[in-house]
Amino acid sequence: MTLMGILNITPDSFSDGGRYLDPQAAMRRALELQAEGAGLIDIGGESTRPGSVRIGEDQEWQRIEPVLELLHGAALTIPLSIDTRNPGVAERALARGLSKALTPDGAGPGGAIGVINHVALEHQQDRVQAMAELARDAGVSLLLMHVRGRLETMHTLPPMADPVRETLEGLRALRDIALARGLPQDRLLLDPGIGFGKNGDENYLLLRGMAAFQELGCRLVVGPSRKRFLTAPGGATAGRDAAAERDFATAAAVTAAVLAGCQVVRVHNVRAMAQVVRVAEKLSQ
Asked: Left (φ > 0), alpha (ψ -120 to 50) or beta: where does 103 sit?
């Protein structure tokens, strides 16, 4: 099991927006994530939360470039993931020569890019193709996260008739696009996209039915961390501090993911979730 630590270089991410815009602060947080047990650090320069504002490719790159440069020279022993919906941003990062393929168990050289983490919108298959080609040619892995609808309106969509089946079909289509572009299957990871076009009840159904996604033949990634659907009745519902209060609920969701056979969990609180994963893995043996 690999813990993917979240490092948002954004002013508006729902949990840690604004905390790591300064490159030095981002570098310190990356080293903290490593010390807490992360096996991979996911760096994003654009928020994709519901209601977030889209930014241009140049602005996204301006946010993450100095962080990548610092981390490449820092005392990291774990690889990086670039979280972007823009092939141009991924291409710029890979062109800097800072990439290196992960091993099958998810390991990789410190400070190098081992994964492109792509928010795969249903209506942007051309971007999925481009990301697959970039990952193929650079020798890195590609993570495709299923998104239902569009980022601007995904939280207003009508309910799904069968969340597990529909998400499985969506992920299968994404998988087939990537494989058709020549990306080896052992370098492809798939994420059902908890909260991305799915309501609270649907998110729970996805977690409960996560084992069904094993049939896709790829490593599975789940990112439930601190998301709004985990809020208990009467609990905090908004704001960065409120999001951090969802760590206990996140632990339950992470446990479900581990027991369902997922290989990667994407989380904010790596220190706490490392303990959760260790116990969940014992339970699954």
From this structure: beta
Q: Residue 113 sits in which domain range?
A: 2-284
d(CA 7, CA 20): 8
Q: How many distinct structural domains can be found in the chain?
A: 1
pLDDT at 150: 76
Residue 259, token pair as written in the block: 């027991």
Is 169 in contact with 192 (CB distance < 8 Å)? no
> Residue 95: what pLDDT?
83
Q: Measured between alpha carbons, how far is 101 from 88 in angstroms, rounded to an integer?
A: 19
The CATH number covering residue 172 comes to 3.20.20.20
Tens-digit pLDDT profile for residues 115-157: 999 998 877 899 999 999 999 999 999 999 999 877 777 777 8
Q: Are 144 and 157 in contact (CB under 8 A)?
A: no
Ranges of beta strands (E only) in 138-218 are 141-147, 188-191
Instruction: Return the structure tokens found at 16.
Output: 């840690």
Rounded Cα distance between 121 and 60, Å, is 18
Instruction: Report in angstroms the alpha-carbon separations of 181 from 58, 124, 201, 266.
Output: 26, 15, 35, 26
C-alpha 6/C-alpha 174 separation (Å) is 23
Helix (H), strand (E) at residue 185: none
Per the confidence metrics, is the pTM higher than 0.85? yes
Nearest by Cα to 19 from 244, 224, 228, 246: 244
Query: Are the C-beta atoms of 49 and 12 separated by less than 8 Å?
Result: yes
Q: Is 140 helix (H, G, I), strand (E, B) or coil?
A: coil
CB 202 within 8 A of CB 160: yes
pLDDT digits (tens, 9 = 90+) for 12-46: 655 565 778 899 999 999 999 999 999 999 999 99
Q: Which phi and psi (to 5°) does residue 252 adopt?
A: -65, -40
